[in-house]
Amino acid sequence: MEKTIEVVVEGGKATAAPPLGPALGPLGVNITEVVDDINEKTSELEGMKVPVKVIVDTGTKDHRIEVGKPSASALIIKELNIEKGSSLPGKDRVGDLTNAQVKKIAKAKFGSDDEPHVNQIKGTCRSMGITIGEGEVTEEELKAAEEHKEQVMEEGAEAGEAPAEGEGEPEEKPAEGDIPEKKGEKEKKAGDEEEGKPE
Question: Could you give the dihedral angle defined by the CA atoms of residues 13, 18, 22 and 23, in that order, rounded to the nearest 10 degrees?
Fold first, then answer.
């Protein structure tokens, strides 16, 4: 009779800790040996979460390991060398894949880069905040557009400041004209005094 234990482990880093160890314990197999076998078979998938089946013959205590395919998201994360996908895929972009990379992931996941499989990978990418085939070119275009916008705004601001400066100068000149007004006031006072003398 065979008993199958299904777990998800990190490639090349399985341990006897839960959930693997406790599941294997009651079956009477050499847990260390099973863990070593899993790590050997998943060493090339380091850094990815990998589904693994441990099939144990409960009579002979022999075991065999079947390694499944990593999830599409795990393959994408590995390809981009990021920690995780975006929690707000519609707003935050965490990376960009080329079409060639998408086909590579589809082949690793499904064994085929046919259009239906490629489309599945693209769908997973979008749900993780990852764009396809945009890359640096789009970023540069966006940056250039922003710089152009800022430049136009600066030029508009400068054009608007010139008249303000020109208008400021005439306003200052009347201020200087306070002195003649004071002189006029003095002359008027002097005239009043003279008129008052004959009296």
Answer: -70
pLDDT in tens, 89-106: 888 999 999 999 999 999
**What's the CATH code, domain 2-67?**
3.30.1550.10
Q: Distance between CA 43 and CA 50 in Å, rounded?
A: 11
Distance between CA atoms of 125 and 111, rounded to whole angstroms? 18
pLDDT value at position 45?
87
Q: How far is CA 75 from CA 20, 81, 82, 97, in A?
A: 23, 10, 11, 12
CA–centroid distance for 32 within its chain: 40
How is residue 61 written in tokens?
A: 């205590």
Closest CA relative to residue 103, chosen from 85, 82, 119, 81:
119
The H or E element that residue 177 is part of is none
Fold exhibited by the domain 72-132: Arc Repressor Mutant, subunit A (1.10.10)
Residue type, 72: A
Where do the domains of the chain lie?
Answer: 2-67, 72-132
